[in-house]
Structures are given as C-alpha cells and as structure tokens.
Amino acid sequence: MSESKLGNILHSSLEDEIQKSYLDYAVSAIGRTLPDGRDGFKLVQRRIIFAMHHLGNTYDKQHKKSARVVGDVIGKYHPHGDSAAYEALVRMAQPFSLRYPIVDGQGNFGSVDGDSAAAMRYTEVRMSKVTNAVLKDIAKDTVDFVPNYDNTEFCPSVMPTQFPNLLVNGSTGIAVGMATNVPPHNLYDMMQAVIQLIDNPETDIDELIEIVKGPDFPTGAIINGRAGIVQAYKTGRGKIYIKAKAEIEQNGKQDIIVITEIPYMLNKSRLLDKIGWLVREKRIEGISTFRDESDREGMRVVVEVKRGASPEVLLNKLYAMTQLQSVFGINMVVLDKGQPRCLGLKSLLNLFVDHRRDVVRRRTQFELAKAKARAHILEGLAVALANIDAVVELIKKAASPAEAKANLIAQSWSIDQGIATLLKVTESAGLDADHKHYQLTEAQAQAILDMRLHRLTGLERDKILAEFKELIERIKALMEILNHYPKLMAVIREESVAVAEAFKDERRTEIVDSQVDIDDMDLIPNDPVVLTLSHLGYLKIQELDSYKAQRRGGVGKSSTAVRQEDYAKQLYIANRHDSLLCFSNKGRLYWLKLYQLPLANRTSKGRPIVNYLPLQDDEEVTALMPVTEFEDGRSVVMVTKLGVIKQVDLASFSRPRQGGIIAVNLDEGDSLMNVLLAKPSEDVMIFSSLGKVIRFSLSDVRVMGRGARGVRSMRLKENDFVVSAIIANEDYPVLTVATDGMGKRTKLSDFRKTGRGGQGVIAINLSENARVISAAKVSDDEDIFLITDGGTLVRIGASSVSIIGRSTKGVRLIRLKNNESLVAAQVFTSEDDEAEDGAESEITETDE
C-alpha cells in the first residue's frame, strides 16, 4: 500500500493502520500482563519492589504509608493509575493470595471473604523478609537496567532473585489471545528441584516430579489426583481438582461438618451465600443451620446436620453443588526473552538456573573488578610505605599538589622481594621486567597524597599489607569461579541450599495420589438395616442393633411412631449399599438407593415414600426388593393379588429411569403383591390368605418381557387372594404367620409339588377370622421380626418356633394387645445378640 506524507499528515489504508495499531497494543499488553520466566514478576510488581528498595523500605525497618510507595511507583516508573498500582501492591501483601507474600502489610488488606482493602492512605507496607532474597545483589550489576518512560530514572528489567518466584508464588494474567495461570508451590521443594538440576542437568521430568510433589496453595485444601499435575509439569498445561478439607464431628448428639480449608482463590462469603441458596431452594436437604466461626486462629465454617440425615452424603453433595470442589486450570505461559511460551516444569527450572548462572557470573565480575581496583590502590600504598622517607621528602619539596602527583608518577620506585612477589600474583602493570622497580599510576599517586599521617605507623602499615594479601586471595578465588564452570555452579548450589533452609516450612496442601470420584455410596458404611414401609406409605430405615432378640411370646417394643389409622405393613432386612426396587400396585417399578434414605430412630415414623418416588394418582408401593447385584441368570418373579405370576430377567431392571417403568401389565381389579429373586430351575411356593399353598417349578413359567401380563399361578376362591410367594429350599423349613399372632415352621417336604394353576394344599389351619399374612423360609440360627398394626415390633429367635406339620395352628409368636393384629413378618440371620426375656406358648394342633 502506497503512502504519501504531506506536512504532518500521514496517508495509509485503514486495514494497515488497524493491523499495526492492534499488533503494537497486543505486544504492549503481553509485556505487562505475563510474568517473566526468570523472576516470575510482572512489570508493575517489579517496579513496586524496586520503588520500595529505593525508599529503603526493608523488612527490618518501619512500615511506610502505602500511598508513598504508590506515589513513587506511578511518578517514577509506572505511568498508570494509582488504583492499578495499589491493587497490585495489595495482592502482594495478601497471605491467602501468595504462598510467600512479597510485601508485609499493616492494616486492612482485604480478606478471603472478598472484602476490599482499605484506601492506601490508611495502610502501611514494607518488604517482607523473603523479598530480601529477591533483591539480593541488585546493586552489583547483576541485571540490566532500562530507562523509565521519560528517561529520567532507571529500573531493573528483571530481578536477581535467589528462588524461582514464578513457581513459588504462582502468577495469573490475561493478555491478548493468551493467558497464564501458574499455581504456587512450596519453596523448599522447589529449591530441592533446583539443586537436583544443578547436580545433574540431565535429570528427567519424572525425577523432578518425585521431588516437587505438586502445587502448595496458601489456603491449603486437598488436590484430588496427580494425573493433572504430571500432565501440567510435562506439557505446561493441565487440570487439577481441588477440594476443601472438612471433617465430620459430634457436637453433643448432633453431627456437624467443619470446613477448615477451602480451594485457592475461593471467596468464602460467596460460598456461604451459595450454601444458603441451596438450602432455601431445597436443592440440599439435611442442613439445619450453618455459620462462619473463622477467627485469627484460622478458618472454621460449621454446617449443622439435621437429625437422621447422613453427614457423609450431605458433605458429598456440598462438594458436588458448591465450589468446595473446583478445578484449577494450569497454563504456564511466561515470557522467555520477551517471547510468550508455554513451558513445563523442567524448562521453567532451567530458565531460572540459567538466570542464576548469569546473575552470579555478573556479580563475580563486578566483585572482581572492585577487588582489582582496591588492590591497585593498595599496591601503590604498599610501594609508598616501602619508600616512605623518599616519598615524604618528594612531597615536601613539591611546590603544589599537582607537582607532587606528577613527581610520584614520574619516579621509578624500588621494592623489596616480598612486595614484588605479591605484585606478580596480581599481574600488576606497574612492575618492571626485573621485578625490582614499580611505576605508580595517577590513581595510586592521588591515593598516596590523600593518605593520612596515622597510616604511616607500623600497625597501619601492617594492616594495609594484610588487606592487600586478603584481596589477592579474594581475586584468585573470583578468577577461579569465572574460569571454571563447576566452581560457578557450586556457588549457585551453596546459595540455593541456604535459601531453602532459611525459608523451609511444611506443605499446606495435601495431595491424594489417585483421583477418586467419590460417590455418596463410598461415604456410607454397608451396614445392615431394618427397612419398614407403613400402611399409609411412610418409609424408613433404622440400624439393626436397635432390637435385641426376644423369646417367642414376648410383648416386643415399639418400632415406629404411627398415627392411629396407620400401621407398618412391610419389613425387610437389607444393606445400605443395596439398590431398592420399588414395585407399585399398578405394576410399575421405581428405583431408590438405600444410602439415600436417612437413618431414623426406633420411634420415628419415617418419611412418606412419595417424597422419594414420582408415584401417580392412586398408586402405592406394595413390594420392595433390596438388590445387591444385578446378576446374570437370576430373574424377578412377580405375583399379583389375583394369582397371576410373571418371570423377568433381573438384568432388565438394572438401568434406573427417573420416572419408573412398567414391570407387569395388570388386569382390571388386580394389583401387584409379591416380588422375589429366583433362578428359572427353582420351585416357587405361593400362599393365599385362606391358608392355602401351591408349589410348582418356575420352568413352568417362561421368562417374559417387561410389558407382558403373565400366567395363572393358582386357582383362588372368590374371597381369597395371594399374600406371599417364596422360593422353595429343602434345607429350610417354611414359616407361616397369621394375623392372630399364631405361627409355625413346617418342613418343605410336607408340601408336595403340583402343576401350575391348581388349588394347592393347606399350609396352616386358621382360627376364625384369622388370615395368613406372611410365609418365609427360616432356619434355626435366624431371627423373626414381627410387626403389628399398632406399631409394635418383636424380634424372636426362629429356633424357639417348633417344626410341626401343615395341618396345625402353630404356636403363639407374639402376645397381641387389644384389637391388634399382625401385619408383617420378616426373617433375618441372627447377630448373636443376647435374648431378652419373653413368655413361652404351647403348641396347638388340629386335623386337616
């Protein structure tokens, strides 16, 4: 594109001008927003530190007003607004932002709750002790200085830091088209990695990762998994998962969750607001209250758990629904020789080691030049002291200082062998070829003229010679460092060890080696529980040891607080990790996880099951099936109230659906009553309320799809219906229980096998108005749980119930109170509890 210049007007195309201007802006933004890979500082941070250095605002002196520091920064080095400079100063003083704060602040510098810092006229600052290691040797020509914006001041282009500040304190920044996010690390660990690289530059990244375990955040917390750390250290990019550190404690009888550490850069106040919102919107249930008890001693957020709620599940929900667990994206983009690059851990450490090598080399050169300059003066003083009488006489005869100086330079001075030997070490240019005479320089002559008379004493002469000898040794040592690479690296190593020991402290962030996606189930012990469902649909679980075994005939104890018209009609024994298949009277199936149900106490009535399941109108749960695993080769056998039986593969029910599914299609007026697990080769026994039972092989019932109706299991009388179905097992007798509290055990061989669809045989001889409520397999080492419609539960040993024939009434299992009836019975393996006392009953037999 052609350009023409007319006077002060430059003509160019809009496209070219936009490209050029944007590129200039992008380069400028990158230089200000990305940290230098050598010292880890951005432009404004470096200028703040240097301004404090110029003010003498060191860690061992008084604090100075922040406004004074900011004024120097924006007036001398940083031509931007005071708010930008003060915000950078504030962050450098926040112990929750930097792992090792660069600035020691006095006053309000904000908080982890997101509170703003006080105005700069109210706060005071000074450099922290660690900043001394950042500025060490800055006056010894260790780094380049560049002019400020108006060429009136000079400031360093990089700091001669003794530790890799970029990795130790981390950095964040957004430039044009790129960003950086470097996490902070433990200084001691990082210096050990530096020392390892000095000892063996061929150290690979895997060895470095063994030394640098991972980021170490100022707010502590837990890093969940090392995969993201390894990826970031190798490539410069990766994701790590950070979770808060929390403990479950007991406050009297109440469980509380205590949060003591939160993820890096998380605003605690916003976290509490989010928890409050989740509670108000009922996204999380089980929190009675929460509060912030943080103080000067540390962080402490307390969440009180409602009685009956699981604190483990609640904590896991807080992790999942709040920022108590968050992702930190590592993106280690830094400036390397002015160019933005994404570097891994080893590259960044090598960048720092190279910088330290350059700093120490330049410092050594500076100290060597200074030592040689001082040695040069001492050479002249030593020569003058060796010829003191002639020197004094020459000065006395001179008409002026200039003449005296010229005469000292013009004369060749004799020296003894001792001084000549010293001068040969320094390779002095004033020494002649025969090493017996010395020619003074202008600087030496001036030093002789400036020498005080007291230096002519013997003691002072000895001091000058001793200093000269020390300087000669110092020069030899410095030359050794510059001329031998291993010596140079040894100096860097020694200083690195000293810095590591000076700032050694314990890690704050815990690292879990492998990432574990914790599920609620992982936090709940797989303990056995008693599961009850009431007539009005109240569901609850309670610990099994709430009940001791009693002798048969005992009065029992209350299992649940029930309303007058309600009673517990179903009882199951299961483990908390089991899946609970909930079958409704409409033939639909719903899913629950038992660990999702809160543990209730013995007298609690529980919670309506409609709170857990999306039941439809006039729908109620009639059968529950706890399932540990959805095994192949097992089937679900469903029996309806009117005697229809259906068999479906268990695996067909292994994939839960939120709205439930159709398990069986029912005839009008029919409802699903019983559900059990079986194998197709086993026998099934179906019991009716009038005391009849039929036994046949499940092979007579083909395996069907979920939407099928099923086939007839037994022929029922008009006023009869199915109450129980069990899988036959020759090793166990069959327990039959009636509503009047009577029951018995009968050998399985007493029940003959017939074809499907028959009327069956007598299972128990019932008294007037009594009905069968349950039938189950039971052995001598198992217990029997019995529940009445009044809410009474009794647990008796099965061995206390005698084994008798089919045509008997049985024995009294429980002594019922007035107007009470048995409504449920369940068998469970005994836990060897001590039996509580109860009354015995006699066996009553009748003819079939």
UniProtKB/TrEMBL annotation:
<dbReference type="InterPro" id="IPR005743">
    <property type="entry name" value="GyrA"/>
</dbReference>
<keyword id="KW-0067">ATP-binding</keyword>
<keyword id="KW-0413">Isomerase</keyword>
<feature type="domain" description="Topo IIA-type catalytic">
    <location>
        <begin position="34"/>
        <end position="523"/>
    </location>
</feature>
<protein>
    <recommendedName>
        <fullName>DNA gyrase subunit A</fullName>
        <ecNumber>5.6.2.2</ecNumber>
    </recommendedName>
</protein>
<keyword id="KW-0547">Nucleotide-binding</keyword>
<feature type="active site" description="O-(5'-phospho-DNA)-tyrosine intermediate">
    <location>
        <position position="122"/>
    </location>
</feature>
<dbReference type="InterPro" id="IPR013760">
    <property type="entry name" value="Topo_IIA-like_dom_sf"/>
</dbReference>
<dbReference type="InterPro" id="IPR050220">
    <property type="entry name" value="Type_II_DNA_Topoisomerases"/>
</dbReference>
<keyword id="KW-0238">DNA-binding</keyword>
<comment type="subunit">
    <text>Heterotetramer, composed of two GyrA and two GyrB chains. In the heterotetramer, GyrA contains the active site tyrosine that forms a transient covalent intermediate with DNA, while GyrB binds cofactors and catalyzes ATP hydrolysis.</text>
</comment>
<comment type="similarity">
    <text>Belongs to the type II topoisomerase GyrA/ParC subunit family.</text>
</comment>
<dbReference type="InterPro" id="IPR002205">
    <property type="entry name" value="Topo_IIA_dom_A"/>
</dbReference>
<dbReference type="InterPro" id="IPR006691">
    <property type="entry name" value="GyrA/parC_rep"/>
</dbReference>
<dbReference type="GO" id="GO:0003918">
    <property type="term" value="F:DNA topoisomerase type II (double strand cut, ATP-hydrolyzing) activity"/>
</dbReference>
<dbReference type="Pfam" id="PF03989">
    <property type="entry name" value="DNA_gyraseA_C"/>
</dbReference>
<dbReference type="InterPro" id="IPR035516">
    <property type="entry name" value="Gyrase/topoIV_suA_C"/>
</dbReference>
<dbReference type="InterPro" id="IPR013757">
    <property type="entry name" value="Topo_IIA_A_a_sf"/>
</dbReference>
<comment type="function">
    <text>A type II topoisomerase that negatively supercoils closed circular double-stranded (ds) DNA in an ATP-dependent manner to modulate DNA topology and maintain chromosomes in an underwound state. Negative supercoiling favors strand separation, and DNA replication, transcription, recombination and repair, all of which involve strand separation. Also able to catalyze the interconversion of other topological isomers of dsDNA rings, including catenanes and knotted rings. Type II topoisomerases break and join 2 DNA strands simultaneously in an ATP-dependent manner.</text>
</comment>
<feature type="short sequence motif" description="GyrA-box">
    <location>
        <begin position="550"/>
        <end position="556"/>
    </location>
</feature>
<keyword id="KW-0963">Cytoplasm</keyword>
<dbReference type="InterPro" id="IPR013758">
    <property type="entry name" value="Topo_IIA_A/C_ab"/>
</dbReference>
<keyword id="KW-0799">Topoisomerase</keyword>
<dbReference type="Pfam" id="PF00521">
    <property type="entry name" value="DNA_topoisoIV"/>
</dbReference>
